[in-house]
Amino acid sequence: MPSTVIQSFQYDAGKRELRVVFTSGRLYVYEGVPPDTYTAMRRSFSKGEYFNEHIRDRYAFRREEP
Prior knowledge:
This protein is an alpha+beta fold. It has helices at residues 35-43, 47-54; strands at 6-12, 17-22, 27-31, 61-64.
C-alpha cells in the first residue's frame, strides 16, 4: 500500500542505514537499523505506521539534502 507519509526508502545493508524520503521531500538517514527491521518495514501493510512504531525515536538519524 502506498504511504501518505513516506515517499520512498532504501536500505544499505553494509552500513546498516535506512534512507527515508518523506512526502515533504525531506530525507533522513537512520543509523544502525538491523536488516530484519528493514525487511519487516518493506513487508508491512502500512509503511508509515511501521516506521512510527519501530524506527522513529529508536535509531539515531541525520537529515540530508535530497
